Amino acid sequence: MKNKYERLSKLEKKESIKEYANSSDTNAAITSRIKRLKTVGIIGIIYSLVMFALDFLKEFGIFDIGLNKFDNLLVSYILDACLLIFCVVFVIKANSLLKEQVNIYLIEKKNEKK
């Protein structure tokens, strides 16, 4: 079953997030931290993909700029994969946390009107 936040249109979702952030200082702090978490997660995803590409190029002897400090490429691939998985989970959980908080706010706001 969809919650109140998921039933909103894309524009209404953006407005509800802004309204949630402007409702109190605590909500503004939560929103800014979640945005920061998403930014760090996206940077981690980009970094892991770039390192995957560099490891792949090093494996075939095409290009090596010396960023890979491990002699065993399997270790590098495992580290890159772990970073990618953790960052993707990080971004997904940050999005779901923001949706959850905004949904709670919208429900409380609706109950106050009654």
Summarize this entry quickly.
With 114 residues, this protein is an all-alpha fold. Helix content is 79%, strand content 0%.
Please provide a written account of the structure.
The longest helix is centred in the last third of the chain and has 41 residues, at 73-113. This protein is mostly helical. The chain contains three helices and no strands. The chain is elongated and about 70 Å long. Helix 1 (10-23) packs across helix 2 (25-59). It has helices at 10-23, 25-59, 73-113.
SSE pattern? HHH
Low-confidence stretches: none
General form: elongated
Please give the radius of gyration in angstroms.
Answer: 20 Å
* DSSP helical segment count: 3
Largest sheet descriptor: none
What class, by secondary structure content?
mainly alpha
State the end-to-end distance: 23 Å
Helix content: over 70%
- Overall mean pLDDT stands at 89
> β content, as a range?
under 5%
**Which oligomeric form is depicted?**
single chain
Number of DSSP strands? Answer: 0
Topology record:
Elements: H1 10-23, H2 25-59, H3 73-113
Identify the notable features of this structure and list them briefly:
single chain, 114 residues, mainly alpha, 0% strand
